[in-house]
Amino acid sequence: MAAFRTLRDVTADGAYTNLALAERLRGAPAADAAFVTEMVNGTARALGTLDAIIEAAAGRATSTLQPAVIDLLCLGAYQGLRMRVPPHAAVATSVDLAVSQIGQRVAGLVNAIMRRIIERTWDEWLDIVTAGLDEMDALALRYQHPRWIVEAFADRLPPEELVSALEADNVPPRTTLAVRPGLLDRDELVAETGGEATRFSPWGVTVTGDPGRVKGVSNGRAGVQDEGSQLVVLAASRAAEAAGVAGPWLDMCAGPGGKTALLRGLTGPEFLVATELQPHRAKLVQQALRAFDPAGHQVVIADGGESALRFEAFGLVLADVPCSGLGSLRRRPEARWRRQAEDLKSLRSLQCVLLVGAWAWARPGGVVAYVTCSPHRAETEEIMTEFAACMEAEILTAPSFLPEVPDCAAADPRFVQLWPHRHGTDAMFLALLRKPDK
Questions:
Q1: N or C, which terminus of the chain has less Cβ within 10 Å?
Q2: Taking the chain, what is the end-to-end CA distance rounded to the nearest angstrom?
Q3: pTM here?
């Protein structure tokens, strides 16, 4: 019931899976919480493929079924085909849920479709639903992505890596923490948590269990942060140092504050300003900075150029712009089915506006770091090459600032593109631009 209601929150009301799960599972025993989490996250990742299986088993389009019935069948199919749940139990619980949550009238329908579903294995169903499809549609169903995302990945990767990239999106990532530079030594965090130091970032530790129980996290000297996010900050700070331009530094679109806290720890005697449009996200930034001396930073609620900050004031400007989020699909299982290719047009317009604002804030000789959690060409290489040509910006060779990270260059080797299947990180993109000296 908790899984069904959570999935309804996600599909009907637009809830985020992680937040909806946290609300539903508050106080639940650990084993039950883990079971429900896998059921919901796995179902949310596989919605498109499960729809195709349900249609094949039912002999009718899912559009002819109630949305609540579709969600219930998706949960049942995922249990019966992908989890260690006996097939008869997946059928029985689906029928019981149908009666209690939707009504007796749909019980027979749910029973009949579920029985057809469990007659075959997952692989057998994949063979059935992909029969006769072209390569992109078949990959989309087999690896649980919309076609347009498969095509976007295929555009950025060698053919032999495409399946590995799609598979990596379906593996939940381990929790990664980052120490705040100057506040906590990584070895201390490893000792406290029993975790492992990250492969590339000097600040990261991968852990198991609830990060909220970690002392370093509770007192603000560490925080949850993917290693890819840590690495783009590392490269940006190195580029600023190499440029030899003085501070202060600016973090645009700073919420929820993980990158801000790393930058704050690296500024030393310089000053850090963080801007964030949404007040509730600005509070998260303040929370992330709570262990630092407040005299060394300021959080401003502002949108790009709409603030009291002085133009051409900052030696480093980090613009982690809103994007499609295609680089973090492994931790946001519902996101792949919410975004559409058409969304990129409005996102790109916003990214351009923010990039222009970042350029205005950077002082002559300063560095602008453009960051997205997406590998899509339109949000990454295209926007950067067009902007650099328009503004006569020098594009720095970003991978040179991450020599410890192998194979991190994008298709255009001036840019960094991380990948889950290559680096174990989110698919973060980084471009570094240097503003001409006057």
A1: C
A2: 64
A3: 0.94
